Amino acid sequence: MGFGRRPSVLLVGEAAGPWGARFSGVPFTSERQLEKGGLPFRGRKSSNHEPPYSENSGTVVWGALLPRYPEFFLWNAVPLHPHRKGEPLSIRTPGAREIRAFCPLLREALDILRNPSGAGQGRVVAVGRKAEYALKLIGVPCLYARHPAQSGAARFRAGISRAFTGV
């Protein structure tokens, strides 16, 4: 994929995770992945945690997507990490109000990433029900892939396979 070419698949996650995008800045990507290599880009950790934070969902997502790089782009419906009050590394599903608050940003990101001519729009994949809800709110048709967390890895891989093959 060269300059000016848009990704054929846009994957929208639910929200930044406590051990992933919260510290890496990249959806479904942990500090450990940035440092150890194996991704098509490198980075460095932003936390003081040793060892670098690792995220199971990121491992599953990149395991499924890496062979398809650079034909996709990752984004989150809620780009910040929702957590319980006073527990910054807790996991909390984003609420409807949070999702609605970030819908304009999600819409703008999709508009930038999609082909401005309207041709070859590509597929949008909601990774998880909250992402699906966000995309529905902004009127974007999407395919659904199960979120890889909590025993969802196999169904996530199947959903991703459908997204790229159209089957």
Sum up the overall morphology in one term.
Answer: globular
Give Rg in angstroms.
Answer: 15 Å
CATH class: Alpha Beta
What is the count of DSSP helices, taking H or I runs of 4+ residues?
Answer: 6
Can you describe what's shown?
The chain has helices at about 20-25, 30-35, 55-65, 95-115, 130-135, 155-165, and strands spanning about 10-15, 70-80, 125, 145. It is an alpha/beta fold and about 170 residues long. The chain has a 4-stranded parallel beta sheet, with helices on both faces. Helix 5 (about 130-135) links the parallel strand 3 and strand 4. Helix 4 (about 95-115) crosses helix 5. It is globular.
Topology:
Blueprint (H helix, E strand, L loop, with lengths): L8 E7 L5 H4 L6 H6 L19 H10 L6 E7 L17 H18 L9 E5 L1 H9 L5 E3 L7 H13 L2
Parallel strand pairs: 1-2, 1-3, 3-4
In short:
The protein is of the alpha/beta class and 167 residues long.
Which descriptors apply to this entry?
13% strand; alpha/beta; 167 residues; 4-stranded parallel beta sheet; single chain; Uracil-DNA Glycosylase, subunit E; globular
